[in-house]
From TrEMBL:
GO MF annotations in UniProt: phosphorelay response regulator activity; transcription cis-regulatory region binding
DNA-binding interval(s): 126-225
Pfam families linked: Response_reg, Trans_reg_C
GO BP annotations, alphabetical order: regulation of DNA-templated transcription
Organism: Oleispira antarctica RB-8
Occurrences of domain Response regulatory (ranges): 2-117
Cross-referenced PROSITE patterns: OMPR_PHOB, RESPONSE_REGULATORY
GO cellular component: cytosol; protein-DNA complex
Protein name in UniProt: Putative response regulator
Length: 227
């Protein structure tokens, strides 16, 4: 495994690099965003660890560039001293897969990196989810309805595939936050509700399609078959 580590605070970087070496992780450290972007042109990494505040551009801009021009599926762990709900949601909505608040903790960092890699490897498996007119190609992140591709964001796709992979089960908002965004349930946000609503609309989920998404009060959502 190889990590791309973007951090301009050299003392912080020295500490985290020491952890990487202790864990047996290969890594490349970058103190400037452009240096990382240049390296991504010819090097593959298994995960990127990005800081928010950087000298040449913000970590948020780095996420947008990585997703749009370099590696759409590279797992990104975003780190910052910013800890408001709005900051966390903004980073996740732009494409970060997980968010850690500074100061970083050694064991938590290792656990989050391991969880991101497991999710990434699981999504790369050659697996299809098929129910009625709906088909989800997990390896290519493509959703089809009656054989026609549907334009969806990555997060909408993951929410949809999670629902269709758990038909008949109640999925709590905390479960979806942890599974799709990799964040704990103590974040009070309507992010899940917004994405479920978009999934309903994008896929045309309705009794006529043979399915419905039922809101379970104070619990979450359940995708049900409609006979």
């Amino acid at each position: 495994m190889k990590i791309a580590y973007l951090e301009d605070d050299l003392e912080q970087a020295k500490m985290v690099i020491g952890w990487f070496e202790e864990f047996g992780y290969a890594y490349e450290h970058f103190s400037r965003t452009q240096a990382l972007l240049n390296r991504l042109r010819d090097e593959d990494f298994d995960i990127a660890l990005l800081d928010w505040e950087l000298p040449d551009m913000s970590g948020l801009d780095a996420i947008k560039l990585i997703r749009s021009k370099y590696h759409q599926d590279l797992p990104i762990l975003f780190c910052s001293m910013r800890d408001t709900e709005a900051d966390v949601v903004q980073a996740l909505e732009l494409g970060a897969d997980d968010y850690m608040r500074k100061p970083l903790l050694r064991i938590e960092l290792k656990a989050r990196i391991s969880a991101l890699l497991r999710r990434s490897q699981g999504m790369q498996e050659d697996k299809m989810i098929e129910h009625g007119p709906y088909r989800f190609d997990l390896s290519n992140k493509v959703a089809l309805v009656n054989g026609e591709p549907v334009n969806m964001t990555d997060k909408d796709f993951e929410v949809a595939s999670c629902l269709f992979d758990n038909i008949g089960r109640i999925l709590s908002r905390s479960f979806l936050l942890e599974t799709v965004w990799g964040i704990s349930s103590d974040l009070n946000t309507r992010t899940v509700d917004v994405h479920v609503s978009r999934v309903r609309k994008a896929l045309g989920i309705s009794p006529e399609s043979g399915f419905r998404v039922k809101t379970i009060y104070q619990h979450g959502y359940r995708l049900e078959r409609v006979e």
